[in-house]
Amino acid sequence: MKAKIFKLSTTQIILLSFLVTIFIGSALLALPISSATGVAVPYLDALFTATTSTCVTGLVTLPTVSTWSVFGQIVILLLIQIGGLGIITIMSGVMLLLNRKMGISDRLLIQDAFNLNTMSGLAKFVKKVLFGTLIIEGIGAVLYMLVFVPEFGARGIWISVFNSVSAFCNAGLDIIAENSLCDYATNPLINIVTSALIILGGLGYIVWWDVLRVIGSRTKKNRKIFRHLTLHSKIAITVTAWLIFVGALLIFIFEYSNPLTIGEMPLFDKIQVSLFQSVTTRTAGFASVPQENFTNASSTVSIILMLVGGSPVGTAGGMKTVTIAVLLCSAFATVRNKNSATLFGRRISADSLKKAVAVVVTFILICATSTVLLMANSDASAIDVVYETVSATATVGLTRNLTATLNSIGKLIIIATMYLGRVGPISLALALGSKGENQNVVSEPTEEISIG
Question: What is the pTM of this model?
Fold first, then answer.
């Protein structure tokens, strides 16, 4: 009898690639050269930092700006970039630079890494992703320099590059100050540049190319861009816009008179701080106001925004805008006794609905498990714990000042949560599940059950 050859699926390779990257990063960060003091940081903190960087989360047990040397910061930045784009994308880009052709296994890896529905044009897609990312991060860095170079001198260049990559990858890590962007809460340029980078990274690459395609093909007679976008792009853009606007409005209302946040600010500053909070909770993790100072109502709004997250095939986390739109649309269609759910005049396929349900259920299970475990291990308030675990699962990085107080078990819980949240609930389910049903096996009998 021939021994079975153990073969990893493409999804399992993706999961392992993140694990390997995390452990290599943690080993480098545990070296004395990575520490600002020259004394090696505890390995668990190095592992936590490597995980939060690779998973582009932003939760930290040690301040990034004061803990790590330039070498350590470079390692963190590389981990953020790899985590944002994905190790498979980086490797594919290197192959293309070396003029190596991608085989079918390479194409399958890319397809799974970006959750694409087709394998056609993948080499071109990877090139566009890498080139587009470089251009946007470069523009962001230059704009940041207008503020940081006059303030920090030559070091401002490094700060600008680091912040631009971190914002685009929705990581939320910075090397400016220990209080994140709180010192720049009312700086319009920092708010606009950071928000733009977060939104562009969170919208997803598919939306980019779709918008550019429509812009390039429009004529004088037909200038309506939105009408000719794909359904995916329409949903992603619409839900993103609504979440930012509604989130900002609610935060503005709930915090209007709160002296600890925006209560004593002029009207314009209240508006821009509220907008930034609404944007950054969509998996970015930069804080312009200490999160523990927000009212419970605003914190609840932020939790909801974190749960939704960004859009598919981008650098953001969360359950994703398109996923939530599909579920809500299906629910409303069922309530109205319709046979199928439609969005923008297009019917939502049953396969899309099944995937949406799988993503949400798995996401909630991860988040709920993490919450219960952390509550059992911490004396913190319920809202602080939920805020922490949702932030970790959705790879946001915002905290109500709980991360730095975690004990060893708490750190391990959040490390596992960040990893599971980054690799994607659906990828995890596929990787740990069976190879699929045998279509030749007779299916089980069907029986009706009561729902609701």
Answer: 0.89
Instruction: Flag whether 436 is in a domain.
Output: no
Is it the case that residue 434 has pLDDT exceeding 50?
Answer: no
Residue 157 forms part of a structural domain? yes
The residue type found at 356 is A
Measured in degrees and rounded to the nearest 5, phi and psi for residue 346 equal: -125, 140
Encode pLDDT of 71-86 as tens digits.
999 999 999 998 888 7
Give the angle 416-73-285 at the CA atoms, nearest 5°: 50
Q: Which residue from 322, 332, 277, 321 is spatially nearest to 301, judged by alpha carbons? A: 277
Q: What is the pLDDT of residues 332-391, one digit of tens each?
A: 888 888 888 888 888 888 888 888 888 899 899 999 999 999 999 999 999 999 999 999
For 371, the enclosing helix (H) or strand (E) is helix 350-377
Residues in the chain, total: 452
Residue 192 within a domain? yes
User: 68 in helix, strand or coil?
Assistant: strand
Q: Please classify residue 296 by burial: count the beta carbons closer than 10 Å to its beta carbon, then call 0-12 exposed, 13-18 middle and 19+ buried.
A: exposed
Do the beta carbons of residue 49 and residue 76 sit within 8 Å? Answer: yes
**Kind of pairing, strands 342-343 and 346-347?**
antiparallel
Given a contact cutoff of 8 angstroms between Cβ atoms, the answer to whether 276 and 182 are in contact is no
Phi first, then psi, for residue 187 (nearest 5°) are -90, 110
| Residue 233 in domain | yes
At 441, the pLDDT band (50, 70, 90 cuts) reads low
Which residue range is the domain that position 95 belongs to?
10-430
CA within 13 Å, CB half, 353 = 15
Number of domains the chain contains = 1
- Are residues 84 and 168 in contact, defined by beta-carbon separation less than 8 angstroms? yes
